[in-house]
Design goal:
359 residues; alpha/beta; 7-stranded mixed sheet; 13 helices
Length: 359
Amino acid sequence: METQPRIRRSYLPLWIEMPLALLGRMLYRVRVRGADNVPTQGGMLFISNHISYMDMLVIMLASPRRIRFVGYDKFVRSHMFFHWLFRITGTIPISPEHTLEGMRSIIRVLKAGEVICLFPEGGISRTGQLLELRAGFEVIARRAGVPVVPVSHDGLWGSVFSFAGNKYLWKSPRLMPTPVFVVFGKPIPPEVVDVPLARKALLDLGCEAFHERPVLKRNLAREAIRALAKRPHRVCIVDRTAERREVRAAQLLGAAAALAKRIRATIPDRRVGVVLPPGAGATIANLAICCAGKIPVNLNFTAGRAALESSLRIGEVRTIITADLLKPRFPTFPWTEDTRDFRTEMAAAGGKKAILPWL
């Protein structure tokens, strides 16, 4: 039985590539979509977003074909290490002073049937968003006669190798493997590719990769509680509904926990209506309802009566948490029989005594 040869991901020697790939898989949990869009033969030009120094490693792990990258030759001149690194990885150095020479080198490699990956933004993003694409890659693709395959990845922003926090390296590393999602787009023929088309393709792929973030698949209320618990003394809300009042994360957690016990014990319904203006009260009510294992239904008190009655009926909302001061101001609002005052409910939940253990 014939054995399948190991797929080489880069031009590194095996004694370097294998430990590097192992390290990459320890640091990053890479998932891939659209690998079947990558042509299996012939030259090809990858263009990718650039948000960290680890982009090359992630793309190398995700690609079904061996890749050569393009880098600035100033690194080659700056230190012997980079000179050695460029040489063993097959990275093609380019220089703003010798652009044509660098383009000819890339075109020659592409015509030989190899795969080149370059970052058309011209540098690492300092915002995490796709920057303006520099022209030139479309000329390379046309002269080499190879398709352009857009690649977008998401998950590396915020790592020590990105510019998140306005600095590189000098920030707390992630202790768990970072989930990264890489999407390969459909090849763009060289005769039609241009900067606007390529940018649109990268933005569309970036949106697709963004929606694969694990945090977006988690429970919103649970993530809110986790975020508040991480920094309990941080001011989260400046409430100006009555008088200016700063509310810290620990206060929100304590009030929500106390009110959640009250809601769980006295409201049997799955959904609970909330009619409160934006502020600390509405935030606490929503958190408490979620912590009680129920669903908050925020109702717009300026909407028409027919629309509100329909919302209450469809949502099977029989209990509303509001403020007694609001009820006289909206006499046409379809208040339910079980309409409760937020402050009264907080007092019944224990008031400040129930919140103190959280402070």
